[in-house]
Design goal:
The complex is a heterotrimer of chains A (384), B (310) and C (267).
Chain A (H helix, E strand, L loop, with lengths): L2 H5 L4 E10 L2 E11 L4 E5 L6 H9 L6 E6 L2 E2 L10 E4 L11 H11 L6 H10 L15 H13 L5 E5 L7 H18 L2 E6 L2 H7 L2 E6 L2 E6 L1 H6 L4 H6 L4 E9 L4 E5 L2 E5 L13 E6 L5 E4 L11 E12 L3 E8 L3 E8 L12 E6 L5 E4 L10 H5 L1
Parallel strand pairs in A: 3-8, 3-9, 6-7, 7-8
Antiparallel strand pairs in A: 1-2, 1-4, 4-5, 9-10, 11-12, 11-14, 12-13, 14-20, 15-19, 16-17, 16-19, 17-18
Chain B lengths: L20 H36 L1 E4 L3 E4 L4 H42 L4 H9 L6 H11 L5 H8 L2 H8 L11 H25 L3 H9 L4 H12 L1 H17 L2 H6 L7 H12 L2 H26 L6
Antiparallel strand pairs in B: 1-2
Helix pairs in contact in B: 1-13, 2-7, 2-10, 2-13, 7-10, 8-9, 10-13, 12-13
Chain C lengths: L1 H8 L1 H23 L18 H4 L7 H32 L5 H9 L6 H15 L5 H25 L3 H9 L4 H30 L2 H6 L6 H11 L3 H32 L2
Classes of the chains: A alpha+beta (384), B mainly alpha (310), C mainly alpha (267).
Chain lengths: 384, 310, 267
């Protein structure tokens, strides 16, 4: 196969690209580079502009400003059928009047390739649908339709494969399976994948790089682990997983930052704070629920020195198998979430119990207090 | 045919278990629902066809009465005498159907994909002509196509009439009372029957399929040829049927806009039945027309593979 | 050439609008010629502007009589065809029974039959039975050919109806009659209304079948037909224009009200 040569197209570069419909701005001017061969995810709630961005790369939407280039070539003014880019559409858009093989062969035939049989067979084999070539789309299950949609796009050896919520129509279990499947295919063919999703878990499982979008802007871009550990805005902190955000006043900026909150003092490493800090200024301290340990108030003395600690009372606990999730009401910051591994369960930790939350200060991150503390917190449910 | 039938309702209340009778009563419900309508069609649609079949093989006269003599010669005579009218009917109806498809498709496409917020207004405009009696509107064509009128003048200046006259569609400087006027009237009268089914099937097409085709290297023209048109086939088939069937039996356009040289078979049936009162010949003609249309329709539906349309 | 490019880009829109113009043109002619004062008996050539016909729409003998007869026949034919057709449609969608295929064909055939064939065969029946041609034979004929169209319209609607809605109604303590009246009928109503409207239009405008089976009774289309031979009074155009204007106004008003309601329903 001549794949290597065909996929050597280069990076996808968006420069100052934006989209407005009348007075509504769907995408703010945006610069973005998707490195060649990467699995790139655009993550955000519905209406954040991620699908519009994708459609501008595909050529299905005309950009209001800015340019799209592929490698060194400016493709902004090319119609979709002249772009070396293919899309896996949301709910697939399979041609209902054509069978699976003809759906997959569609793009090849349009480019005047006559002998498509072998390629189609190979491609159906890759997506494990060899026996379904003569079925019509409506005779397939959701997962099979999804694989046909991927095959139909991939067979053209596009320089970039665009996936618009490709797993949105599948149930949870199938979705997990297809996530791994897509990841496998991407590794196998080495094509750049740009994946649009509202599911943060899906984005983190599959992508090398995730761009979190909100209100037509990219809020933050980075590797999944980096985004999770070092969110720079409250939106990212809340949208990617769960964060406990505690507001406090900066009391010391020498060495580590020290912040007064809820009657106690908490410290965090200076390099983990994305906001400007001055003594006396406000700051949001963030800590992920799984990083917190929970101790009954009677055992407070056993907690090692140097750890951040906050007192509170358990108001709710739910057992979910691998862990138990607690909600702790604390003077420091309202209701805090704590996830405890179910290794040795302390039977005293029931609703009503007075507890001390403690964690390694190095796990704390700092955010600008001038933001909406709840931004992105409920967006995941809204997006469905 | 419908696959969405509800299963027969299971008897639910336990205390009614001893009563098996209501279920037989329930079984009869569809028959009671069907009875009046089906009876009506049997008596006033099917039975008349039988009467007509019998009339077509009768001989006799109005004064002495007719009786069944299995005189099939009537069919042979009728065909021999009136085959030009049959051929003309099929030719005119066929041409009008093709014209309806060619003219109607862009409009249906426009309403389905391009009209945006004007969609409802355009739809109303398509249906609006129905609100004036079609006879009045057909008479209006007499004014539009009148000798020396604007339309004829323009066609004359552009030398279109020279070409059509050479083809035998028009005569010298006239449009009225020529085949072209009749076909024009037929096309006009049955256009909505073409546009509405076309629109319905076009409107059902998922817009993303167009995008998907474009994404897969199909130019707009290819997208139309490979995706839009095939998916609109149900509309094309039902539209052509709804146009061709009534057009083939129509005699209003031929009588109002044509001349004695453009008479269609409907005119003959009408005058045999209502003026000449030669019932056997009229019935035979009517039967032949029915047979031709049904054969054509069956063949067409088979060919286009849309049997599920019925 | 930018002009040519513009035309090429908008070819479909241009072609569609031309077709639309072709469809509307005769209506405009009818409207304009309702203000004509023709010289002879025929109203085909423009002479001069006049409001005479509008001042006296019933001024021609038998015109308004035929109009009222057509409206009466259309009303009763609609009522009959809608009632019978709705019942058949429900039976076809909701029940299993013998001879389903035959019954479906019987419904389909009248729509696949040239009108003149139905007209002629129905006349042979009436002649053989010695029936008196007139109001009743026309009404019978109209119910017959409207029936299939009503069945098709209602069937489409009932088929797209979720049967779980009726199950939900039964689950919420509605008996069979209540389920039908409170749930099934309201949901099927648009289909029934569409069928009824179609039936009214078909009946009111029918000429061929009526012409065969009316005897000496004259409906409005028959009056127009006769006048095409004897001389077309301007009043025909007045009636045609009035019908057109009233119907379009009603439809547009309905649309405006519907869109208002939709806007108001939004919080």
């Amino acid at each position: 196969m001549t794949q290597q040569q065909q996929t050597a197209g280069g990076d996808v570069r968006l420069a100052g690209i934006s989209k407005t419909y009348g007075s509504f701005t769907a995408v703010q001017p945006l610069d973005l580079t998707v490195p060649q061969g990467s699995f790139f995810a655009l993550l955000g709630a519905s209406g954040c502009g991620k699908t519009t961005t994708l459609r501008m790369i595909a050529g299905l939407e005309e950009a209001t400003t800015g340019t799209v280039s592929l490698g060194d070539e400016d493709i902004t003014d090319l119609p979709p059928y002249k772009r070396p880019v293919n899309t896996v559409f949301q709910s697939y858009a399979l041609f209902p009047h054509l069978d699976v093989a003809e759906n997959v062969a569609f793009g090849l035939r349009r480019r005047g390739i006559k002998s498509v049989k072998k390629q189609v067979a190979d491609m159906l084999e890759l997506v494990q649908l060899g026996d379904f070539a003569r079925r019509k789309p409506h005779q397939l299950s959701g997962g099979q339709q999804q694989r046909v949609a991927v095959a139909r796009a991939l067979i053209n050896h596009p320089q970039v494969l665009l996936l618009d919520e490709p797993l949105g129509a599948l149930d949870l279990k199938l979705r997990r399976q297809m996530q791994l499947e897509l990841k496998r295919i991407q590794t196998e063919v080495g094509i750049t994948f740009v994946h649009v999703t509202h599911d943060q878990e899906e984005a983190m499982t599959m992508a090398d790089t995730v761009a979190v979008m909100n209100g037509g802007r990219v809020e933050q871009l980075g590797a999944p682990a980096d985004l999770y550990e070092n969110p720079r805005t409250t939106f990212v902190a809340n949208f990617l997983g769960t964060s406990n955000l505690i507001e406090g006043e900066v009391v010391s900026t020498g060495g580590d930052l020290v912040v007064a909150a809820g009657g106690g003092k908490l410290t965090l490493p200076r390099e983990r704070c994305s906001a400007p800090t001055t003594s006396g200024g406000r700051l949001l301290l963030g800590i992920r629920p799984e990083k917190i340990s929970l101790a009954h108030v009677d055992d407070a003395d056993c907690i090692a020195a140097g750890r951040n600690r906050v007192t509170g009372r358990i108001t709710d606990s739910s057992f979910i198998g691998v862990s138990t999730q607690y909600v702790v009401e604390s003077p420091a910051g309202g209701a805090l979430q704590v996830y405890e591994q179910n290794i040795e369960r302390d039977t005293r930790l029931v609703p009503g119990a007075e507890v001390v939350l403690h964690w390694n200060a190095a796990h704390t991150f700092g955010l600008d207090a001038a933001q909406d503390i709840d931004a992105g917190a409920s967006s995941v449910e809204d997006a469905e | 045919m419908s696959l969405t039938e509800a299963p027969p309702a299971p008897p639910s209340q336990p205390e009614e278990l001893r009563l098996r009778k209501p279920s037989t009563r329930k079984r009869l419900v569809p028959y009671w629902l069907l009875l009046p309508g089906i009876l009506w069609l049997l008596v006033f649609f099917a039975l008349p066809l039988v009467y007509q079949a019998s009339t077509s093989v009768q001989t006799g006269s109005l004064e002495q009465g007719f009786e069944v003599t299995w005189h099939f010669q009537t069919y042979v005579d009728a065909l021999r005498e009136y085959y030009p009218q049959f051929i003309r009917s099929l030719l005119y109806a066929g041409t009008a159907t093709v014209l309806c498809l060619v003219l109607g498709y862009p409009l249906a496409y426009l309403i389905a994909f391009k009209a945006g917020r004007w969609r409802n207004l355009v739809l109303v405009l398509v249906i609006a002509p129905f609100f004036t009696s079609f006879l009045i509107r057909t008479l209006a064509w007499k004014t539009i196509l009148a000798d020396g009128g604007a339309v004829v003048d323009v066609l004359n200046t552009l030398h279109v009439l020279d070409v059509t006259s050479w083809l035998g569609w028009t005569e010298s400087n006239r449009v009225l009372a020529t085949p072209m006027a009749v076909v024009c009237g037929l096309t006009y009268n049955f256009l909505p029957f073409m546009i509405l089914p076309l629109y319905t099937s076009l409107e059902r097409i998922d817009g993303r399929l167009h995008e998907a085709a474009g994404d897969l290297y199909a130019t707009p023209a290819t997208t139309f040829r490979k995706v839009t048109f095939p998916l609109s086939m149900p509309g094309v088939v039902s539209g052509t049927l709804l146009t061709f069937i009534p057009a083939s039996g129509d005699y209003v356009n031929a009588e109002l806009l044509g001349s004695t040289d453009t008479k269609m078979v409907g005119s003959v049936i009408q005058s045999q039945f209502l003026r000449v009162l030669d019932y056997p010949t009229a019935a035979a003609l009517s039967f032949i027309l029915m047979a031709i249309v049904l054969l054509a329709v069956t063949f067409y539906i088979r060919r286009s593979g849309t049997e599920d349309l019925v | 050439m930018p002009v040519l490019r513009w035309i090429r880009r908008n070819l479909i829109v241009i072609a569609g609008l031309l077709t639309l113009a072709y469809m509307i043109l005769p209506n405009l002619v009818v409207m304009v010629f309702s203000f004509n004062k023709p010289n002879g008996r025929f109203n085909y050539a423009w002479q001069r502007f006049s409001l005479d016909a509008w001042k006296d729409p019933c001024g021609v003998a038998d015109l308004c009589g035929s109009l009222s007869l057509s409206l009466q026949i259309a009303f009763w034919a609609t009522l009959g065809a809608t009632a019978l057709g709705t019942m058949v449609a429900f039976a076809l969608v909701r029940y299993r029974f013998r001879a389903r295929g035959a019954i479906s064909s019987l419904i389909f055939l009248p729509m696949a039959m040239p009108e003149v064939v139905m007209a002629a065969s129905l006349l042979t029946l009436f002649l053989n039975m010695g029936a008196q041609l007139g109001f009743w034979t026309v009404l019978i004929a109209h119910i017959m050919f409207c029936l299939s169209f009503v069945v098709t319209a209602v069937k489409a609607r009932v088929m797209s109806m979720d049967p779980r809605l009726e199950e939900a109604a039964r689950d919420l303590y509605a008996g069979p009659v209540q389920t039908f009246v409170r749930v099934t009928l309201p949901i099927a109503a648009p289909g029934i209304a569409a069928g009824a409207l179609l039936a009214f239009a078909l009946s009111f405008d029918d000429f061929i079948i009526t012409n065969f089976n009316a005897g000496s009774t004259v409906t409005f289309p028959m009056f127009v037909w006769g006048s095409a031979q004897r001389g077309t009074p301007v009043q025909i155009n007045v009636i045609g224009t009035a019908m057109f204007v009233i119907a379009v106004t009603v439809v547009l008003a309905g649309q405006v009200i519907a869109s208002r309601r939709k806007n108001n329903a939004r919080p």
